[in-house]
C-alpha cells in the first residue's frame, strides 16, 4: 500500500465523524510498539518485513537500546472500511511504571484505547493501572489478546488448553473492569441514599448496597469476542482476527446465519454434524467447541507445518487452499527462516491491521460523540460543581459536544510540551531541488569536468588557476556550516495538543489559561476588547495571550506542516514555549475554565543533586534544568535551602533518562550527580514490652527525655485536675504568658491509611475551616464545591470515627470532633488533637454541615492559628533527621494564656485589663459567630509558634522514635530454575517476599515482594544478570513502613552487653539511614573517628 499523502490527511480532518483518536495501553513488553509497527506498515510508511523490528515509534536512542518505550508519540493513519474512509490518530504510550505520566498525557487527548494483554503473562500490575486510567478518563476500550503464538511455540498448548487459557485471561481483564464499575456505582448509590434516607428514632439505617448494581446496565461494559471488542493476535507474526471474520466464512459453508455464528463461536457451543445445528454444552459432552474446531485447530496446523516441522509440501497445500500468493523468496527460505515464511502466510490470511483498525472504526467513538459527563469532568475539578460555573462557561459545553470546526469558539488542550531537535523541524529539512537549480549544478559540473580535461592536456600549468575557484566555493560552504551546526543544537518545544472546538489556524491569537485561572474573575468585570481587556489580562497572573506561529501533524519520528487544524484533530503547536510550562488550555474566549488537572498515579520519589564540573557553566545547568522541567511532565526540579539543584524522578530508569537528557540535550555540559536521595519519614510507636533479645522489659527506662529530667521534675507540679503527665511535655513562652502541655501518641494504622488516601479532601477541608457562621452558607458557592464532595467529607468523618472506634473506644473517645488540624501542609497523615477542657473550639467539620444546628459550635481563642502553625512546622521536619513525620497524633492537654507581667505605665495597665480574658464572648443581642477577627498580638503569636513547635518535637522525643522507609511493591515473573537466585537478590537488599503463585499451565512463578526504595538502586540490573535475563522486576511505590530497629539503642542489660558487647559498635539499619540523611543535610552526626592511630604490637613481636 502506498503511503498516504498529507493532502489526503487534510481532507479527512475536515469531518470529525471520520476521526478516531486512540492510544495503545499495556504493561511493559506486552507488544504495544510491535502492534503499532503493524498498523503503520498498513499505510506504507514502513515495510511489512520490518514491522516489529524497526520500532518506528521509538525515536530515541535509549528507547532502541533498552527496548522499551519512554515517551508518548503520535501518528496519523488512513484506513478504508468498506466504502468509508477514516483517519486514525494513534498514540503509542509507555508501559513502564516510571513513565506513567506519559500515559496520562496520552489518555487525556483520546476518545478510545487499545488495551494489549500478553496471554502468557496475563493481567499484570501496569495493566490494572492503565485500565483504571482509561476508566477515569471515560474512554471506550477494545482488547487485544497478544502473543498467542507463545502458547504454541513456548508452552506447547493444545487447542483445547489454549482455549481454556484464553477464557481465563479474558475473565481476569473483565474482573478488573467490573471492580472499577462496581466501585463507581456503589459510590454514587451510597451518596444518593445517604443524602435521602433519614434515620428513624431508635432505629439503625441499613443500606442495601447491591441495589445500585442491580438497577444499572452493564451489558456493554465487558470485553466479549461476540461484541467485536476483542481481537486475538500475534503482533510479531503479523496476524490477528475477530470472530466476526470467521463467522462470515463459515456461515456460507455451514448454511448457518452469520449472527448466530457470531454469538456462538465464543463459548461452550459445538456443531451437531447430523442435524447441522449448534448445540450448547460442549464441555459436558466432551465435544470440541466451535472456537477450537473452526479457528484454533487451523492456526495450530499452520504453525505445526511451517514453524515446528517445517514441512514444505504441507505448507504449500495450506497456501493453495487459502488462495495466498507467497513470494518465491519466502518459499525459498522457508526452512532456514521459518518465522519469515510464517509471517508472510499469516499476514495475508489474517491481516492484523485490518482486524484492529476495523474494530477501532466500528466500536470506538469519534470526537463528535464525546460524552457529556466527560465534558463536565474536563471542565471541572473533582471537587468543583459544573452548575457553579459562570453561565457563559456552562454554555461552552455545547461547543465541546458538537465538535464543530465552524464554531467561533476555539478550544485547545495542551497535555505536554515535547522537545524536538531543530534539524527535525519541517522548515529545516533539505528541500527537493527545482529544475533551474538542477540545470545550474549540471552546468557547473560540466565546467569543472572540462577544466580537468584541459589540465591533463596542458599539464599542471593551469591547476593553480583553477584550484582557487574550487577553494573559494568550499570556503563559502564552510562559513555557513557553523551556523547550521548552531541551529541543530537548539531544542524547540512543540505542544502536544488536541482541538476540541473550532478550527486552529496559524497566526490566530488565543488566550492561554493557567490551571488556577477562574473565568468569573474576568467575566464579572464586563470588560470589552481593547485597553480594558489588556489591563485585565495584565492584572491576572493566570491568563496571557499568545499567537500560534506554526501547526504540525505528528507522524511518528517526523513532523508535517499544516495551515489549520479542525476540531477533533491531534496536532503539534509551535511558539508556546514561553507561555506554557507543561500543560495549559488555549481558548479564543475567556469564559472557558481551565481543563481539569491530569491524574498521575506515579509520584516522583527519587532525587539527585546535580552540579556542573566547571562552576563557570552553572548558568548552562540552570537553563538546562528549566528545559528539562518543561519537557518532562513528571520530573520535578527544585533548589534546596542549601543551594543544591535537585532533580526528582519517578524511578531509576526515569532518573537515568532525565540525567542523560540534561547532559546531552538541554545543558550540553558535563554534570556531576550525587548518589540517589531517598525520602524517609519519622514516627513514634507504642512502648515495646520486650527488648532486642525478647527479654521482658520491667524496670528499664531508655527515654531520651533524660536530658530534660530536671526541667521535667520542676514542671510536673503543673498537672491538670490531678491527671498524670506521663509522656507529656510542658513548654512555656519566654515571658511566662502562655503554657502548653503536649503529648505525642501513635495513630492507629487504619486512621493513617484513610488520611493518606483522602489527602485532597483534607486539603479542601483545611481551606474551608475558619469561616464564620453567617458566611458558611455562601462558602460552598464561593469555592464551587459539589454536593457530592460534601457527602465525601461526611463519609471521611464517618470512616475516621469507625477507625478510631476499632482502635479503642476509651482511648480515642470523641477524637474526630476534637481534631484541631492535619499536618504537614494541612493535609498530611498527622493530627493535632484538642484535649483542653476549657477550650470549646469549633470543629474542623463544621463547614461540611450547613443544614445542621450551628448555634453551639464553640469559639476560637486568640492566637489559635499560632498553635496550628507550630504544629505544621514540627510535622514538616522531625527531630531525627529533619524528615516529615508520619502517623503521629499530638494531643494538647493544656493551653493557658495568663495576663502579661505588671506594667509601669497607665497605657500598659489598660492593655493588661483588656487582655485579662482572652476567651471570645458575644453580646446577647448579637448572634454567636465561630470566628472573630482580632488583631494579632505579634510578639505572643510568634512566641506561641516557637513554643508549639518545640512542644511537639519534645513530646515526639519522649516516645520510642522510629524511622519509616519508602517501600516498593516488587512483582517478578521467574521460572523455577532461577527462583532461588531471585530470593537471594531480594534477601541481600532487605526485601520481604509476600506471596509466590504458580501460573496455571506454566512453570513460571509470580513473586510479590516489598523492597525498600533505598535498597532498590541497581536491583533490576542485578536480578537480570543473576537470572540471565529470565526474570525482570516491576517496581511500584507502595507505602511507608517502620524500620524496626531503634536508632538510639545501646546495650544496657547484662544479657545485651554479653550478646552485643559493651560498646556494641555496629550500625543497625535505622541508624545507618538516619546518619546518611543527617550527613547529607549537614546536621550533627555522632560517630567515632580515630585521629591518631598506632600500630598494635603483640608481646611476641617485641621480644
Automatic annotation (TrEMBL):
Give GO MF terms, alphabetically: GTP binding; GTPase activity; ribosome binding
Got a GO cellular component term for this one? Answer: ribonucleoprotein complex
Q: Keyword GTP-binding: yes or no?
A: yes
Polar residues biased stretches:
459-469, 718-727
Question: Where is the stretch described as Disordered?
Answer: 448-487, 709-730
Which residue numbers delimit the Tr-type G domain? Answer: 17-273
Alphabetically sorted, this entry's keywords are: GTP-binding, Hydrolase, Nucleotide-binding, Ribosome biogenesis
- The protein here is known as Elongation factor-like 1
Amino acid at each position: 500500500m502506498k503511503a498516504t499523502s498529507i493532502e489526503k490527511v487534510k481532507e479527512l480532518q475536515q469531518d470529525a465523524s471520520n476521526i478516531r483518536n486512540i492510544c495503545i495501553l499495556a504493561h511493559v513488553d506486552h507488544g504495544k510498539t510491535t502492534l503499532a509497527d503493524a498498523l503503520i506498515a498498513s499505510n506504507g510508511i514502513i515495510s511489512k518485513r520490518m514491522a516489529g523490528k524497526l520500532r518506528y515509534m521509538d525515536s530515541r536512542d535509549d528507547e532502541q537500546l533498552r527496548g522499551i518505550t519512554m515517551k508518548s508519540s503520535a501518528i496519523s493513519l488512513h484506513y478504508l472500511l468498506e466504502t468509508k474512509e477514516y483517519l486514525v490518530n494513534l498514540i503509542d504510550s509507555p508501559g513502564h511504571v516510571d513513565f506513567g505520566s506519559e500515559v496520562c498525557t496520552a489518555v487525556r487527548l483520546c476518545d478510545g484505547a487499545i488495551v494489549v494483554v500478553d496471554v502468557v503473562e496475563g493481567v499484570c500490575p501496569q495493566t490494572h493501572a492503565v485500565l483504571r486510567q482509561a476508566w477515569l478518563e471515560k474512554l471506550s476500550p477494545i482488547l487485544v489478546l497478544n502473543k498467542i503464538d507463545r502458547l504454541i511455540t513456548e508452552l506447547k498448548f493444545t487447542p483445547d488448553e489454549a482455549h481454556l487459557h484464553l477464557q481465563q485471561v479474558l475473565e481476569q481483564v473483565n474482573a478488573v473492569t467490573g471492580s472499577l464499575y462496581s466501585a463507581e456505582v456503589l459510590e454514587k448509590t451510597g451518596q444518593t441514599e445517604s443524602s435521602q434516607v433519614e434515620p428513624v428514632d431508635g432505629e439503625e439505617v441499613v443500606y442495601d448496597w447491591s441495589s445500585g448494581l442491580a438497577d444499572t446496565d452493564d451489558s456493554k461494559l465487558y470485553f466479549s469476542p461476540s461484541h467485536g471488542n476483542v481481537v486475538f493476535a500475534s503482533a510479531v507474526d503479523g496476524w490477528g482476527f475477530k470472530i466476526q471474520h470467521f463467522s462470515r466464512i463459515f456461515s456460507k459453508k455451514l448454511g448457518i446465519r452469520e449472527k448466530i455464528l457470531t454469538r456462538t463461536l465464543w463459548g461452550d457451543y459445538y456443531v451437531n454434524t447430523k442435524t447441522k445445528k449448534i448445540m450448547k454444552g460442549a464441555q459436558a459432552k466432551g465435544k470440541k467447541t466451535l472456537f477450537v474446531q473452526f479457528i484454533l485447530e487451523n492456526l495450530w496446523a499452520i504453525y505445526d507445518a511451517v514453524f515446528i516441522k517445517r514441512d514444505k509440501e504441507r505448507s504449500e497445500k495450506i497456501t493453495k487452499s487459502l488462495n495466498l500468493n507467497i513470494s518465491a523468496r519466502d518459499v525459498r527460505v522457508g526452512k532456514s527462516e521459518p518465522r519469515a515464511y510464517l509471517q508472510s502466510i499469516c499476514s495475508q490470511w489474517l491481516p492484523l491491521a485490518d482486524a484492529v483498525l476495523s474494530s477501532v472504526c466500528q466500536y470506538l467513538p469519534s470526537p463528535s460523540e464525546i460524552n457529556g459527563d466527560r465534558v463536565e469532568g474536563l471542565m471541572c475539578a473533582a471537587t468543583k460543581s459544573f452548575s457553579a460555573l459562570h453561565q457563559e462557561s456552562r454554555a461552552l459545553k455545547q461547543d465541546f459536544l458538537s465538535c464543530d470546526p465552524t464554531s467561533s469558539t476555539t478550544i485547545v488542550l495542551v497535555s505536554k510540551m515535547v522537545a524536538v531537535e531543530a534539524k527535525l523541524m519541517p522548515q529545516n529539512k533539505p528541500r527537493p531541488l527545482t529544475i533551474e537549480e538542477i540545470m545550474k549544478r549540471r552546468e557547473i559540473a560540466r565546467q569543472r569536468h572540462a577544466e580537468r580535461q584541459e589540465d591533463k592536456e596542458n599539464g599542471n600549468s593551469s591547476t593553480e588557476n583553477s584550484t582557487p575557484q574550487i577553494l573559494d566555493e568550499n570556503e563559502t560552504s564552510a562559513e555557513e556550516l557553523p551556523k547550521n551546526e548552531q541551529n541543530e543544537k537548539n531544542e524547540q518545544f512543540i505542544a502536544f495538543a488536541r482541538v476540541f472546538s473550532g478550527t486552529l489556524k496559524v497566526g490566530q491569537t488565543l488566550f492561554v489559561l493557567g490551571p488556577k485561572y477562574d473565568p468569573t474573575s474576568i467575566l464579572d468585570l464586563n470588560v470589552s476588547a481593547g485597553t480594558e481587556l489588556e489591563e485585565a489580562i495584565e492584572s491576572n497572573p493566570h491568563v496571557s495571550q499568545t499567537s500560534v506561529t506554526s501547526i504540525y501533524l505528528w507522524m511518528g519520528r517526523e513532523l508535517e506542516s499544516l495551515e489549520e487544524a479542525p476540531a477533533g484533530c491531534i496536532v503539534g503547536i509551535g511558539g508556546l514555549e514561553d507561555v506554557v510550562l507543561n500543560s495549559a488550555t488555549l481558548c479564543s474566549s475567556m469564559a472557558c475554565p481551565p481543563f481539569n488537572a491530569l491524574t498521575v498515579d506515579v509520584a516522583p520519589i527519587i532525587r539527585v543533586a546535580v552540579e556542573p564540573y566547571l562552576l563557570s557553566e552553572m548558568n548552562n545547568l540552570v537553563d538546562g534544568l528549566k528545559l528539562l522541567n518543561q519537557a518532562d511532565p513528571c520530573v520535578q526540579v527544585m533548589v534546596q535551602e542549601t543551594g543544591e539543584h535537585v532533580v526528582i524522578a519517578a524511578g531509576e530508569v526515569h532518573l537515568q533518562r532525565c540525567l542523560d537528557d540534561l547532559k546531552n540535550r538541554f545543558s550540553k555540559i558535563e554534570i556531576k550527580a550525587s548518589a540517589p536521595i531517598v525520602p524517609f519519614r519519622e514516627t513514634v510507636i507504642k512502648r515495646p514490652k520486650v527488648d532486642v533479645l525478647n527479654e521482658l522489659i520491667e524496670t528499664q527506662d531508655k527515654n531520651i527525655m533524660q536530658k530534660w529530667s530536671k526541667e521535667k521534675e520542676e514542671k510536673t507540679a503543673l498537672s491538670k485536675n490531678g491527671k498524670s503527665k506521663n509522656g507529656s511535655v510542658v513548654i512555656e513562652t519566654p515571658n511566662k504568658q502562655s503554657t502548653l502541655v503536649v503529648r505525642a501518641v501513635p495513630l492507629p494504622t487504619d486512621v493513617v491509611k484513610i488520611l493518606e488516601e483522602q489527602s485532597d479532601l483534607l486539603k479542601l477541608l483545611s481551606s474551608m475551616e475558619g469561616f464564620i457562621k453567617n458566611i458558611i452558607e455562601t462558602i460552598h458557592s464561593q469555592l464551587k464545591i459539589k454536593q457530592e464532595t460534601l457527602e465525601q467529607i461526611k463519609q471521611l468523618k464517618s470512616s475516621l470515627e469507625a477507625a478510631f472506634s476499632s482502635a479503642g473506644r476509651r482511648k480515642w473517645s470523641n477524637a474526630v470532633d476534637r481534631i484541631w488540624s492535619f499536618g504537614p501542609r494541612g493535609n498530611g497523615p498527622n493530627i493535632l488533637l484538642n484535649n483542653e477542657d476549657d477550650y470549646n473550639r469549633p470543629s474542623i467539620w463544621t463547614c461540611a454541615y450547613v443544614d445542621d444546628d450551628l448555634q453551639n459550635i464553640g469559639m476560637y481563642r486568640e492566637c489559635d492559628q499560632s498553635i496550628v502553625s507550630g504544629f505544621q512546622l514540627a510535622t514538616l521536619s522531625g527531630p531525627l533527621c529533619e524528615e516529615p513525620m508520619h502517623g503521629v497524633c499530638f494531643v494538647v492537654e493544656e493551653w493557658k494564656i495568663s495576663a502579661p507581667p505588671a506594667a509601669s505605665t497607665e497605657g500598659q495597665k489598660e492593655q493588661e485589663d483588656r487582655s485579662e480574658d482572652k476567651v471570645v464572648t458575644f453580646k446577647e443581642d448579637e448572634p454567636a459567630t465561630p470566628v472573630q477577627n482580632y488583631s494579632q498580638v505579634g510578639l505572643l503569636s510568634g512566641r506561641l509558634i516557637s513554643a508549639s513547635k518545640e512542644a511537639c518535637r519534645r513530646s515526639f522525643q519522649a516516645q520510642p522514635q522510629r524511622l519509616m522507609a519508602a517501600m516498593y511493591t516488587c512483582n517478578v515473573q521467574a521460572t523455577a530454575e532461577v527462583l532461588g537466585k531471585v530470593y537471594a537478590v531480594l534477601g541481600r537488599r532487605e526485601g520481604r517476599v509476600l506471596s509466590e503463585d504458580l501460573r496455571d499451565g506454566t512453570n513460571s512463578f509470580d513473586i510479590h515482594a516489598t523492597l525498600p526504595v533505598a535498597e532498590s538502586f541497581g536491583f533490576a540490573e542485578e536480578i537480570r544478570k543473576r537470572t540471565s535475563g529470565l526474570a525482570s522486576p516491576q517496581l511500584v511505590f507502595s507505602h511507608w513502613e517502620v524500620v524496626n530497629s531503634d536508632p538510639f539503642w545501646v546495650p544496657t542489660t547484662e544479657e545485651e552487653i554479653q550478646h552485643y558487647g559493651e560498646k556494641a559498635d555496629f550500625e543497625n539499619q535505622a541508624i545507618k539511614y538516619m546518619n546518611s540523611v543527617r550527613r547529607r543535610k549537614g546536621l550533627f552526626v555522632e560517630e567515632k573517628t580515630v585521629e591518631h592511630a598506632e600500630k598494635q604490637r603483640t608481646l611476641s613481636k617485641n621480644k
